[in-house]
Design goal:
acyl-CoA dehydrogenase activity, alpha+beta, four-stranded antiparallel sheet, flavin adenine dinucleotide binding, Butyryl-CoA Dehydrogenase, subunit A, domain 2, Butyryl-CoA Dehydrogenase, subunit A, domain 3, 10 strands, binds acetoacetyl-coenzyme A, binds flavin-adenine dinucleotide, single chain, 51% helix, AcylCoA_DH/ox_N_sf
């Protein structure tokens, strides 16, 4: 496998790296402490084209490939995973979903504003009693002729309060099970739509996670995405690509912690020498480097599969499963390499360790990735 990057890829990676260093790093500890959404930074990311990277240029998107997107995700996540999850949801769930399956009118009206960051998007599938088991959702969308009426609650929604446009998955006909599910575009401000309380989180604390309530929300029929009954496939297909973005986020969190640990090992002294000269520490660095490289190969393979028009359900699930485990392992070891300083906020690695955990949970838990992988390989 040859993952040679083009000059353009290198430029995108450098631009994301510079942005992370100059715009995200200052204030990242404070935003984490205060659970503050990186509003200004997200708006700048929109201006720079990082919020609609893969979307079609005619709707304001960058028309870039998935490799460019994962390179940017890795660089941003090295520094601020709260900002990068906003980038991830907007790019690979909301913009990609609308660009691929939306109508011309939906793209003109919504996508063109989401690609530039003028509006922010959210993807609403999970419910209080239906996370992994996504088809058992209770939110209903009743067909009333020229509109649908949505009732129910969505849970843990990223960008819950900051978003303007929400892609909402709901049951239109329970009898038909997953074939009775539809996806809708809901705008903030529609009557009966209410943002619930903000979750108090362990990690990615700068991103805002909320429950959402729908009380007789009237949504015009033209806001349904795709044919009647396409909603569950829409969610699954969109999540297959989303998982590549989260895998890249996990890779970035791991790489960020690794780089900090490596520098620390070179400078911190104990027993009259830099700690890197103690084999126990040097071997930790060796393990981190090896696992990160392996994760990078899986992430790039999944991104290339998507770019080459190959099926990426399996490679994306493997990339997410593996990279998220590497993120947990590497960040935990990075704290250990830092000793007491690792436990202190100003050294960043404790935050990266807290942030790493979510990559094993959202966009399908690690157990769900194993369901996807095992079904795929056993079927083959
Ligand atoms: N692409 C297209 N269609 C797919 C598909 C895919 N990747 N995966 C499943 N389907 C289709 C199946 O073909 C089937 O359709 P047919 O009957 O027409 O063939 C239908 O969907 C139902 O499939 P299953 O029988 O496999 O469904 P299941 O109930 O066993 O569930 C699952 C499968 C993979 C476990 C799925 O429920 C799942 O992915 N759960 C996890 C949900 C999840 O990832 N949530 C993330 C929320 S968003 C988020 O988290 C964002 C964030 O944090 C930032
Ligand atoms: P459950 O499904 O109840 O799972 C509990 C445990 O059982 C897990 O360990 C799980 O892996 C395991 N389990 C369940 N089923 C199986 C099985 N068949 N085989 C083996 N093990 C199984 N959702 C959205 O829709 N949009 C968002 O923007 C979004 N953002 C999120 C942001 C944050 C910070 C968090 C915490 C969650 C977010 N989610 C979002 C929800 C997330 O996708 C779900 O939490 C996740 O899919 C797991 O669902 P659950 O929490 O209901 O866990």
């Amino acid at each position: 496998m040859d993952f040679k990057l083009t000059e353009e890829h290198e430029m995108i990676r450098q631009a994301a790296r510079d942005f992370a260093k100059n715009e995200l790093l200052p204030g990242v500890i404070e935003r984490d402490e205060k659970q503050e959404f990186p509003k200004e930074q997200i708006s700048k990311l929109g201006e720079l084209g990082f919020l609609g990277m893969m979307a079609s240029p005619e709707y304001g998107g960058g028309g870039m490939d998935t490799v460019s997107y994962v390179l940017a995700m890795e660089e941003l996540s090295k520094v601020d995973a709260s900002a990068s999850v906003v980038v991830s949801v907007n790019n690979s769930l909301v913009c990609w979903g609308l660009d691929t399956y939306g109508s011309e009118e939906q793209k003109k009206k919504y996508l063109s504003k989401l690609t530039t960051g003028e509006k922010i998007g959210a993807f609403c599938l999970s419910e209080p009693e239906a996370g992994s088991d996504a088809t058992s959702q209770k939110t209903t969308a009743i067909d009333k002729g020229d509109h649908y009426v949505i009732n129910g609650t969505k849970n843990w929604i990223t960008n819950g309060n900051s978003a303007d446009i929400y892609l909402v998955i709901a049951q239109t006909d329970r009898e038909k099970k997953h074939k009775g599910i539809n996806a809708f575009i809901v705008e903030k401000g529609m009557e009966g739509f209410e943002v619930g309380p903000k979750e108090q989180k362990m990690g990615i604390r700068g991103s805002d996670t909320h429950s959402l309530n729908f009380n007789d929300v009237k949504v015009p029929k033209e806001n349904r995405i795709g044919e009647d009954g396409f909603g569950f496939k829409f969610a699954m297909k969109t999540l297959s690509g989303g998982r590549i973005g989260i895998a890249a986020q996990a890779l970035g969190i791991a790489s960020g912690a690794y780089e900090l640990a490596k520098e620390y090992a070179k400078t911190r002294k104990a027993f009259g020498t830099e700690i890197m000269n103690h084999q126990a520490i040097a071997f930790k660095i060796a393990d981190m480097h090896t696992h990160i490289e392996a994760a990078r190969h899986l992430v790039m393979k999944a991104a290339c599969d998507k770019d080459n028009g190959e099926n990426y359900d399996l490679s994306g699930a493997m990339a997410k499963l593996y990279a998220s485990q590497v993120a947990m392992d590497v960040t935990t070891e990075a704290v250990q390499v830092h000793g007491g300083n690792g436990y202190v906020k100003e050294y960043h690695v404790e935050r990266l360790m807290r942030d790493a955990k979510i990559t094993q949970i959202y966009e399908g838990t690690s157990e769900i990735q194993k369901v996807v992988i095992s079904r795929s390989v056993l079927r083959d």
